[in-house]
Amino acid sequence: MALLGNGVRAQETYRFSGVVKSEKNDEPVAFANVVLKEVNQWGITKNDGSFVINQIHEGQYILIVSCMGYEKLETPITIKGNVLNYQIRLMESMEDIDEVVVIAQESRQNGTSSLIKRDAIKHVQPSSFADIMELIPGGVSQKNGLTTMKLLHLRVPTDVYLYKTTVGEFNSSLGTSFVVDGVPLSNDASIQNVTGSYNEDYLYYRNTTGKGIDMRLIPTDDIESVEVIRGIPSVKYGDLTSGVIDIKRAYRVDPLRARIKANEGTKLFALGKGYRLGETEILNANIDYVDYKSDPRNPLVNYTRFTGSFRFSDVQKEGKNKHELKVSLDYTGSFDESKRDPEIDNKQRLKNSYNQVRLGSTLDWEPQDKDWLEMLSYSISGSYTFDRRRIQRSVSGGFTPIMTNRDAGEFYGEFLPFSYIGNLTVKNIPVHLYAMLSANLRLPFAGRIHNVLIGTEWEYDKNHGKGEIYDETRPVYAGVGRPRKLNDIPSIQKFSVFAEEQVKIPVGRHVLTLQVGLRGAMAMNLSSEYTMSDRFYWDPRTNLSWNFPSFNVMDRKFELTLNTGYGWQTKFPVLAHLYPDLSYVDRVQLNYYSSTRPELRRVQYKTWIIDNTNHNLKPNRNEKVELGFTLRSDKVRMDIGAYYERLKDGYKMLNSLNVLNYKLYDIESGPEVDELTGPPTVDMFNSEAKRDFLTSAKRGNGSKEIKKGVEYQIDLGEVDAIRSRVSVNGAWMYVDYDLSEGYYKGSSAIMEDEKYPYIGYYTWSSKSKSYEQFNTNFRFDTNLKEMGLIFSTSLQCMWFKSMKYIPHNGMPDYYIDKNGNMFPYTEEHTKDPVLKFLYDKPDPHEFDERREPFAADLNLTVSKTIGDNIDLSFYVNRILNYYPSYTQSNGARVHRNVTPYFGMELKINL
Amino acid sequence: MKRLLIVLCAVCSLALFSCDNDGIATSTVSFYAKLPKSLSSKSPDFNGGTLTLTNVNTGIVTTEAMSSLAISFPEVEDGLYNIMIEGSVKYESTDVEGNAVEKEETVRALKENVEIVGGQFDMNIELFLFKASNGFIISEIFFAGTETPEGKQYNEDKYIELYNNSSEVLYADGLCIAESELNTAMSLNEYTPDIRPNETPVSSVYRIPGTGQEHPVQPGETILLCDVAINHKEGNANSVDLSVADFEWFDGADVDVDVPETPNMIKMVSTSASVWSLHNRGFSSYILFRMDDVTPEQFTTDYAYHYQYTFVWGDFVRVMEFDAWKVPNDKILDAVECSTPSDFEWKALDPSLDLSWTHSGDGDAARYGKSVKRKVAHTEDDGRKVLLDTNDSAFDFIATAEPSPGEIE
């Protein structure tokens, strides 16, 4: 007791008693918990709703009243003497206990977030996690294929990642942390790149290196709830910039359930059960199998997923040894395959097989005597991924030299055969280890009790794969031949500490809820050459809610809460960013290809080795501001929030500049073919000295990304007149992708039979764009319990989408000649006969807005329960659609065509 | 029988009736051909010809004889038309001794995509003089390359074959071959300056070396130009033997293999820093010309050509500016326009150079291993083949032909 800060008059204690009643019908509420939060003193209501708490010291407290079926009430109370017959009215919960909620519910408990529960997930009839993201404000239903990677871009308009030539550098998807049962998934050590495959769409659309988590890998049948945190997350979540997807899986007794889904191209089969092993122990098991063909008529491109999960839990909620232990073992298999039509080319085959085993455990333990330690938690996890990509194709190599030397210098070489079968395997074996320890403390200081969370986290990512494996003299991509072993790359380890306090401050009848936290993170195991090495990056994050006293308007009780937040988030670079492959640049100087004497054929070439490691690479840091409000009345809830995010130094592929000096030998100056006794040597020929620029891709912090917008959701609850739950959600969002660092760009112009003599340094990009979109989804969910029918209608309106190029003056900042001299580039150079080639004159209409007008889809989803054990559901999306043609500013007429798509599934409790 | 006739008549009249009544507007059209200005001092006289009117939409072709320079069509369905005139003109000239002689030459005219509407339509059409060549001509172009037995595109076996179509020994020294800068499958919006009537925009120009009499070509002999002069069957069974080639175009050891047995052409200019590879589907056209007094350096600077057009793709609109070179049309010895039936949009060459275009395949896999090849007009008594050259490549060339580098079949 002496620990209590306000225990000056420790002897004087008071009595607090009262009655809890239902707001709706004034009936007393039994078994409600009444707690004075700061001192953890509590009482339980009897059948008549009455409660008593004795021995309370004078002070200001937060009173928390909670009961199943009612909304939790939190209200400030001042105790100066005995408080008797205190009247408490609880609002009935928005959800009936047995009510089925099929929408995402907004929450402001943990920053701006949406909570999606099991029933809502079930009702979407998902094939993978990507499908359920349509439920969050700003989401739209999309036909998500499974033959290409599915990344999550939070708060990003749908058009940004529509094409391969995107300006978005995947910083949003990389910076979204997927947390499953308290443990983040990691893709940071994965390297799936294939050198030389720049134009290979198959590989590009399945390569998630440095891009974040592929949502295809996440099955949905074992999920209990998902929280999508788009705002400022608690500091216990780290290594992220955009948001958190917190997935909680089912640890509970469940009958054996099967789900069978079929739609165009997809076949899904899932099975799950939760067994009770003992009084507190439960074992859950799930398996899931998906087979997908992007075009059912073309069986040559397909995707298969197989997942299995065992989850053990031991939950003791009462008594002296309160704890919650969870252990899980998961397997994920993901298989992409593409074959060419055997009649055209039976040699081409592309196959990815991804196998991951993950073991994890979390424990929350509460001591019996909660003096200062309320809870101690740990999470540990390890995953081992065996990802193998195989490429087989026929190659015509005829005139390309074989280049396998690992040193710089000049070499003689031979030509590749005219045609051969190239085989390449990428062995990518990322290993991820994770450990977290945290404690919830109750610390009395500065006159108050403080609820503080402190913790520390360690994360390890390393690749144990051999990388690209192939016969270097028969490469799949001619001209390539120096693979690197991925297991030579050091591990990256991240160490973090965090502390956060959550306080409720009563101010009269108002309550301020403040969450203030700080997280420090550091990348370890980096050589001291890296600027980042052994340096802490600090993320302050705070969320503030201001709960106004409830007020009545037209006989309705309203509750208003203002929510605001400000915070920083940091995402460290992944292995592929920190340790790029050495770039081997080869120039052929002598190219002797005799037609009559093949034995004389020979090349002589020069090799440069360019190391594009960027030791100055910094973590991505995103600054976020949130401001919004929640208005509630009875079952109606309205959430409107604005946000502003600024990622100043996002990762972007820029380049480095090199000048190459080489020679070109003129074979007409040498001996006749008949005079040679063996392959020629360079001393037999005259040569001409050449000097060229070479730009080489280098990762930098060059992407400046701004996101701003307004997200809203209005949940009207059950509207009796139409017996439907009516909800409206959507978002106006704007993103802006610009450059924050420059890059080099030359001209392809030829000047007097020579390559262009200058190269420009540009601090703008013709790809820099801003996008905007505004949408609203109107949803009607009708639950006809007596018929076992849930009927959902969603009208999805896209009011507009628009895109604009970011204005620039078309000029480089400066230009460089082949001797490395720098000259400023000025307006008059744009008219110079030579320098004008570095000027990319903007079109008068180049920066005009391109706007796509209104379009709408109507989607239907129906679930029907047959008997006790069978659920049959189907959906038809775009059953009605309105995509009017429109005229662009240049007069072109655009006709938009969309087609409906549908699917159905069967769920059986066995 | 009588009843049958009556029925037939009824059907016919019904058909006529329905034709008359289908509501397509017609116009009365008059064309006024103008004789070439170059002949204005030589008392030219039109000696008759034919006018061919092709409805672009329906493909219906109407041919009408012209006895004078003016011709009218009373009822022409409104629509887009191509108009072609071929005729002859007599004019007075003087020979080297100063005697007056009457000469006769072919004249032609071509107007494409003319919109005929509005009830009454009059149009002036300039005729141009058409001379059949009697010297070096382009006899074959193999632009598509081949497909390897493994199904891979193979581009190194492309070639262009030239032919001495005269009865005299000619010298190949200084002959230049060029690829058109304009693409027949992409008509340019607001293209300016449009120099095609007088000069041809080109992107790559290579010249056969020599001082004037180093490379004699006998009547009926070929000159074979290619990228890589080897027997390509060595590594690709579907290819051709180019080891017999006379010259290679070579773009530098860093990007191109060099065959020591075959001399290289002089690279005059190129808009590309890499290897010259003829347009794979055949959307570019080729010209053969001679500008012996112009050095490569002079050509680079004095014949530079800057142009622009407005690029429109979806909502992307932008003025594009390009630099290339130009060749005066009066220096051109022969020109062959290439395109495909599905992709042809406009002519890269002036109709006076080539009235039409030829093709290999239709942009599809049928083009691989096929060339465009000039037809043999007749064989002289001494066995020399004279190739057809009426500057009308749709007529003069065998489309999608079997390649035969260095051989005339």
Please explain how this structure is put together.
The complex is a heterodimer of chains A (910) and B (409). The model of chain A is unreliable at 1-10 (pLDDT under 50). Chain A contains four helices and 50 strands. Chain A has two domains: 7-90, Immunoglobulin-like, CATH 2.60.40; 124-909, TonB-dependent receptor, beta-barrel domain (Maltoporin, Chain A, Beta Barrel), CATH 2.40.170. Chain A is mostly beta strands and 910 residues long. Chain B is mostly beta strands. In chain B, the strands form seven sheets. In chain B, strands 14, 15, 19, 20, 21, 22 and 23 form a seven-stranded antiparallel sheet that branches. In chain B, strands 18-17-12-9-24-27 form a six-stranded mixed sheet. Chain B has a five-stranded antiparallel sheet with strand order 3-2-5-6-8, with no helix packed on it. Chain B has three helices and 27 strands. Residues 4-21 of chain B have low confidence and may be disordered. In chain B, β2 and β3 form a beta hairpin. Classes of the chains: A mainly beta (910), B mainly beta (409). Chains A and B meet through β31 and β34 of A and β19, α2 and β22 of B.
Q: Helix segment count of chain A?
A: 4
Structurally, the number of domains of chain B stands at 2
Helix/strand-derived class of chain A?
mainly beta
Number of domains of chain A: 2
| Largest interface, chains and sizes | A-B, 48 and 46 residues
Short description:
The complex is a heterodimer of chains A (910) and B (409). Chain A is mainly beta and 910 residues long.
Layout of secondary structure:
The complex is a heterodimer of chains A (910) and B (409).
Chain A: E1 14-22, E2 33-36, E3 41-44, E4 50-56, E5 59-66, E6 73-79, E7 83-90, E8 105-107, E9 113-117, H1 118-124, H2 171-174, E10 176-180, E11 183-184, H3 201-204, E12 223-229, E13 243-249, E14 254-263, E15 266-276, E16 281-293, E17 301-316, E18 323-339, E19 349-365, E20 373-395, E21 409-413, E22 420-428, E23 430-445, E24 448-463, E25 467-469, E26 492-507, E27 510-524, E28 536-547, E29 551-553, E30 556-571, H4 575-578, E31 583-592, E32 602-610, E33 620-633, E34 636-666, E35 686-719, E36 724-739, E37 743-745, E38 750-751, E39 754-755, E40 758-762, E41 769-784, E42 789-805, E43 814-817, E44 822-824, E45 850-852, E46 855-866, E47 870-882, E48 886-887, E49 893-894, E50 901-909
Parallel strand pairs in A: 1-7, 10-13
Antiparallel strand pairs in A: 1-4, 2-3, 2-5, 5-6, 8-9, 9-12, 10-11, 12-13, 14-15, 14-50, 15-16, 16-17, 17-18, 18-19, 19-20, 20-22, 20-23, 21-32, 22-25, 23-24, 24-26, 26-27, 27-28, 28-30, 29-30, 30-33, 31-32, 33-34, 34-35, 35-36, 36-41, 37-40, 38-39, 40-43, 41-42, 42-45, 42-46, 43-44, 46-47, 47-50, ...
Chain B: H1 2-20, E1 26-34, E2 45-55, E3 61-66, E4 70-77, E5 79-94, E6 100-116, E7 120-126, E8 128-130, E9 136-142, E10 146-147, E11 153-154, E12 159-164, E13 170-171, E14 175-180, E15 199-207, E16 216-217, E17 222-226, E18 247-248, E19 266-270, E20 286-290, H2 296-302, E21 304-313, E22 316-328, E23 332-336, E24 371-374, E25 376-379, E26 385-387, H3 393-396, E27 397-401
Parallel strand pairs in B: 1-7, 17-18
Antiparallel strand pairs in B: 1-4, 2-3, 2-5, 5-6, 6-8, 9-12, 9-24, 10-11, 12-17, 13-16, 14-15, 14-20, 15-19, 15-22, 20-23, 21-22, 24-27, 25-26
